[in-house]
Structure formats: structure tokens, C-alpha cells
Amino acid sequence: MSAVYYTLGVVVFVVAILVSIGLHELGHMIPAKKFGGKVTQYFIGFGPTVWSRTRGETEYGIKAIPLGGYVKIVGMLPPTVDAVTGVADEVTYDEQGNQVVKVRKSNTGLFTQLISDARAAEWEHVKPGDADRLFYKMPWWKKVVVMAGGPSVNILIAFIIFLGVFATYGSRSLEPDAGRPVIDTVSACVIPYVEEGRACTKDDPPTPAVEAGLRPGDVITSFNGTEITSWEQFRALIRGNESGKAVIGYERDGQALVGRTSTTVQARPTSEKDFSLTQVGFLGVTPVAHVAITRGGPIYTLQQMGTMAKDTFEALGKLPVKVWGVARAIVGLQERSPDSPVSIVGGGRIAGETAAHQDFPIAEKLVFLLMLVAGFNFFIGMFNFVPLLPLDGGHIAGALWEALRRAAAKLRGRPDPGYVDVAKLLPIAYVVAVAMLIMGVVLIVGDLVVPLHIES
Known about the structure:
Helix content: 40-55%
Order of helices and strands: HEEEEHHEEHEEHEEEEEEHHHHH
Structural class: alpha+beta
Mean pLDDT: 87
Strand order of the largest sheet: 8-7-9-10
Distance between the termini: 18 Å
């Protein structure tokens, strides 16, 4: 039965992500068509076409590799314009008098050739009568709406899911009871953080807490002469003590006792939000705690998403380093960090393990899966707003620069500088695309070779 639940969890997650991808592309396609643009293709996935149907001027379909999707909007790249005459490379007219622009290929360098080839490929889709429907000719604000539509849909999906969870189930966290910490559990042995959950072996040393004689129910009163008033204070003192001597005062059944030991140094998460490992002092106890539940509506959800956005921007800045860590873990040079990024393969695996977990109530499984889908959507949305081609944010940045440049020229009484030629940024786009491909492959391999698992 667990295999059935595992498969169900994977299928639900994958289908949810594919639906999200489809809605993302609709976020581009619908406004593009509303603004009169020509959309020739709408596909979910990449690679060989599995199924497609043409409706009107648009081909709709599904491809074999479900790792994304795309919408083909005609006229994304403008033709080359002569710097002196301001005339496009070559202009001809069809029998009806419609202007048709042809792009000459250039052989004056690698990057120039790449740009020229991209223009040529782009303009193969331009037909007579399309002159007024080309994307690059749209007003800048329409370009922003079209390109922002996709990632905005992902963020909207995340908001709807988060709102539903926060308003009903609530945001839940395990909080230590107020006042002096009461010991809930004492770890029998020192196990590396990345191996937590396994049983002790004869090679694992006892924890300092065991050596100090601590037991569940003991009330901590002091640490190295400092009076203890809260778990947070006690935890900070332990972490800062590194491998130093530790004199622990505690009460048991109303009797004041003292335990002596030395804390050991172990790699532990830097904080509750930052899971990167830091060498800190370790004792081996957990406090008596309770589940704190906070429920809220739209404002609370937006506040939470604001914090998530900040964390996401920080994570994007560390993404190359994190992926490098996954690559090192694949070849056995280090353990995989618990906060390392995962691909859709890893997300599906985590979804399957959650669905099959025997100790999780149905409600918690459902909430976890919903939050997993919402988290992926939020990250995809934020990632696509990064102002680099080929991401949506690169096109948005180009449209905003066009608006700024034209406004500045108008204020100075100078001629209209015309459209921003995003084709000139294609070399950067190719580098970014290759980097994204490499990171994607590393994460997929990592999720197969050194996968992350949910905590037991």
C-alpha cells in the first residue's frame, strides 16, 4: 500500500507542476493575443512532440520532456537597422503591398553570426500582413504585461495555495515552552546532522548530555555559572561553548543537581531558517515544546510571502554555490546539505515519501504537498523575474530600458532612439541558458544519486 501512496504522491506533484507550467505559458499567450500579437505555438515540455493540434494560427501541444514549456510569439527580435540610414537590412513588398522584412546573415564574428542566425530564424515566422503584429513593435508597457504574465501566474498560484493553508490549517511551528527549559529527550549518542534518524552504533560516542547525567524532565537552571531563563538562551550558550567544559545546573524532582561534561563540536544548521551547516557546540538535548498555530488572511499571507521573497533572493544569490555542493556530494567529496536545491525529480521524490509516510496524518500530508507545490511555483515565479535573458525578466528589463531611453530622448528634444535590440544580448542569454542547463542536470543527477529525504 505504501508503494501506491508513494506513486500517488509523485503523480499529484508532477501533474500539479505541469498544470502550473501550462498556466504560466497562458499568462504569456493570453495578453499577447489580446494585444494583437501573433502566437504560433503553445507547448508544455521540450523535445519530441507527443501530441499537438492547430487551432486558428496557433499550434497547441505536449512534448516528451516535462521540464518546462514555451509560447512562440512572432517578432521577438527586431531586424538589424543601419546606424546611418535607419533602414532595416532589406525591405521588400508582397503582391498586396504589405511590407516584408528580410534579414541578411553576417559572417563577421562568432557572436555576430549567432545573433544574425537568431534574427533569420525569428523572421522565418513572419508572414505578409504580420508587420503590425510583431512583438518588438508593441508599446513597452504591453511587452512588460506579456512577459510578466507568466511568472505572475506562478506567484498568484502560490498566493492562492498559501492563503488557503494559512486561513484554515494555519502556519505551525514547534516552540519551546516559556520559562526555564525542561528536557524532553536526551540523545544517546552523537550522530552527524546529515545522518539524523538512524540508530546509534557501537562506534558512535555518547552525547555530552548522557555524560552529564541529564534525563527527560530535568529543569535546566544554569550553564557555566549563568542563570538560565529560556531555551533560546541555553541553546546559544551551548553553541558558543564549542568543545569547552560545561557545568550544568538542573533540578530533578525538586532537588538541585549539577552535571559536568564538555560539549562537543558538530556541524549543525546555522539557524532555524538557514540550514547551511556551521561548526558549533553540541550537548544532545531537546526541550519540552508545543505546536504554535498562527492563522491569517490575505494580509498575513502577503507578509509571509514578503519574507519568502527575501529568502528566495538570498537563495538565488547562493544558487551556484549550492549546486556546486550537490556536485561534490554526487562524487562523494561531501555530504549533501539539507538545504540544497532540488529539481522536479527531487520534488516528486519528496512528495512520494510524504504521501507514503505512515506517521503523518492525512491532513498534514495534504498540507505538505500543497506547500511543496506552492513553494515550487513561488520560486519559479521569482526566478523568472531575474533580469537576464533568456528569462522573462530579461525581456522585461529590455522593455523598461526602451521606455526610459525614449522618455529621456523626448525630454531632451532628441529623435526617437527606436526599439531596444534585445538580440544584442543573445550571447549573454546563451551563457545563462548553458549555466541553467548544467545546474538542472546536476540537480537531477543529485536527486537520483544522493537524494534528500523527509525527516522521520
